[in-house]
Design a protein that fits this description.
Blueprint (H helix, E strand, L loop, with lengths): L2 H6 L14 H14 L6 H6 L7 H14 L5 E6 L2 E6 L1 H7 L12 H13 L4 H8 L5 H10 L2 E6 L7 E5 L1 H6 L14 H9 L11 H7 L40
Antiparallel strand pairs: 1-2, 3-4
Helix pairs in contact: 6-8
Length: about 260
């Protein structure tokens, strides 16, 4: 290659350096996205807001800063199982309920007992629930929880009949404002948590612990992989039914 040829070769110019993102703008964009979203937003979609210029760790740090900045406001930024979201703080929600036409459904004691058993003993079969509650589980009870999106069938137990195994969903954690099952409250705190988050009806008279019977049952009846929270103390009572609740279980006591 001659000197003349070398002179004609053009050296490519380096790409222009990106200007660093303005932190205030990033926070405002995140707030706009989260406040306008109807569902929690995960880190992946939030990264796309900035064309990949922010990595996941930087984004989480900024989100934590936003959460701190909103500490004294009636709306808070929270991290749940499906991502990040803004929500009205529980102490203000009761005022907004006075002008809202969308009322949270009230669930019967049977539904909430069944939900508690699934949450702390999952995965469980319908038979497991019946052994613990001592009564047959009516179809509307499980249907109410499935329609709300709080439970789902996650498999089948390899026993005769291959009964369905039920477990809670990410939506259940989102609605309870939790990131994982490890954050479930102790069983005795479940009632107040349900009251605050789901507008459950007033508590019924105290009844015997649901899970004491489960601990005393034959080990073969218990799920093989209960969550860590299963060892917590049992609840003293469960919220009773409200006007909009599905019908209570009316079947005869379950024969173990």
């Amino acid at each position: 290659m001659t000197d003349e040829t070398l002179e004609t070769v053009e050296t490519p110019e380096p790409p222009p350096a990106r200007e660093p993102l303005d932190l205030t703008l990033v926070k405002r964009v995140l707030e706009a996205a989260l406040l306008s979203a109807s569902e929690p937003l995960a880190i992946g979609p939030l990264k796309r807001l900035f064309g990949g210029e922010l990595d996941a760790d930087s984004l989480r740090k900024i989100l934590d800063e936003i959460r701190e900045e909103w500490t004294d406001r009636p709306v808070e930024l929270t991290s749940v199982a499906s991502g990040w979201r803004f929500r009205v703080r529980p102490e203000y929600q009761r005022y907004l309920d006075r002008i809202s036409n969308d009322k949270a459904p009230r669930y019967s004691r049977a539904v909430l007992e069944t939900l508690a058993i699934i949450a702390y003993r999952q995965p469980v079969t319908r038979g497991d629930i019946e052994d613990i509650r001592g009564v047959a589980v009516s179809p509307p009870t499980l249907k109410a929880l499935e329609e709300r999106g709080w439970i789902d069938v996650v498999g089948h137990r390899e026993t005769p009949g291959r009964p369905a195994l039920f477990a809670t969903t990410r939506k259940f954690l989102d609605d309870l404002n939790l990131r994982s099952l490890e954050e479930l409250p102790a069983l005795e705190e479940l009632q107040s948590t349900l009251d605050a988050n789901f507008e459950a009806a007033p508590a019924a008279p105290t009844q015997e612990s649901l899970l004491e019977e489960a601990h005393e049952a034959d080990p073969g009846d218990a799920p093989s992989e209960p969550p860590a929270a299963d060892a917590a103390a049992p609840p003293s009572d469960i919220p009773s039914s409200g006007a909009d609740a599905p019908p209570e279980d009316t079947e005869q006591p379950h024969a173990g």
